[in-house]
Amino acid sequence: MQKEKLLPSKLPYVGTTIFTVMSGLATREGAHNLSQGFPSFDCSPRLSELVSHYVKNGYNQYAPMSGVPAFRESLAEKTSRVYGVDYDPETEVTITSGATEAIFCAVTAVVYPGDEVIVLEPAYDSYVPAIDLNGGVAVYVTLDSPEFKIDWQRVKERISPKTKAIMVNTPHNPVGTVFSKEDLNALADLVRDTDIYIISDEVYEHIVFDGAVHHSMMTHPVLQERTFVCGSLGKTYHTTGWKIGYCLAPKALSKEFRRIHQYITFSTVTPMQYALADFLKLPEHYEQLGAFYQRKRDRFNEALKASRFRFTPSKGSFFQIVSYRAITDEYDYDLAIRLTKEIKVASVPVSVFYADKKDDKLLRFCFAKDDEILDKAGEILSKL
User: Fold this and answer.
1) CA distances (Å), 361 to each of 55, 115, 172, 323, 331, in order?
2) pTM passes above 0.90
């Protein structure tokens, strides 16, 4: 038998993403899946009806490369309404096949071989591969647990003449922190009068808690002019499987962004875009999202109070991280696997979000689940 020839890898350090690993294991083990970040409940029946309407009425061919005009207009109107920032739907709003594609296109648009990109870790796992595939160099600034506050002086010290971009994420996945107005000002002070771009992952923009406000990069004039704001309607409307994201960026940035986008997916699924264009005109659905998920967070956290896990309530996203130091000193990856197999509750080990797999004895649980699942998982975890 001829020996299989191995293809040299551009990402030799990358295996199967942790989300696929843990969701697959949860399925095989019949475990409660609090690992991968997707809701266990469906979208609004009204949104489903709108999709059905457009499918049945023939809106099933290619959408324009930059997105259905009505959808881009609705998104621009909603952005102006929420943030008081105006983007031209014709030249500054681009629809993508998920926020991951938007992030990749933004990185590809500005990063050339040898450029440095500052990454605040723990960081979502698609950021660094996008940098590497474009020949860039990730420069890490590690946020310290348990508060994970950004030390902007430390960020400043990592900036060099080769720095091309800084990647930010608020509300944060996996740790659930949110940027303050002071954070925006500090970041603006760092990049003012430079050619450094900002790539901002804001997919959980409407999921903030306890009266907090989402401070988008677009709301600061110094940041807005140099930022690719990457968002997701999948997180907002419980439709992660539709993979519909977007990028908001000034005209010059969007022009280069679209050069890349057109050769990755060209365009995104058509009937969903028309449906979302209509649905965005009903603001109550995203205005109530924070309160909806805060109830989920509080329910799960209440169930964990009787446990030996320790945590600070998440400030945003639909993730809660917990410390298990009082339970075991196991490596977090091993513990996540063991708990999925033995007690049938799946989580994500936080070490996977660090370049050196830093183990702070933390697990990430997704509370975007039905109440019965949260109650049962909390009950099981409290017995550890």
Assistant:
1) 47, 33, 18, 6, 7
2) yes
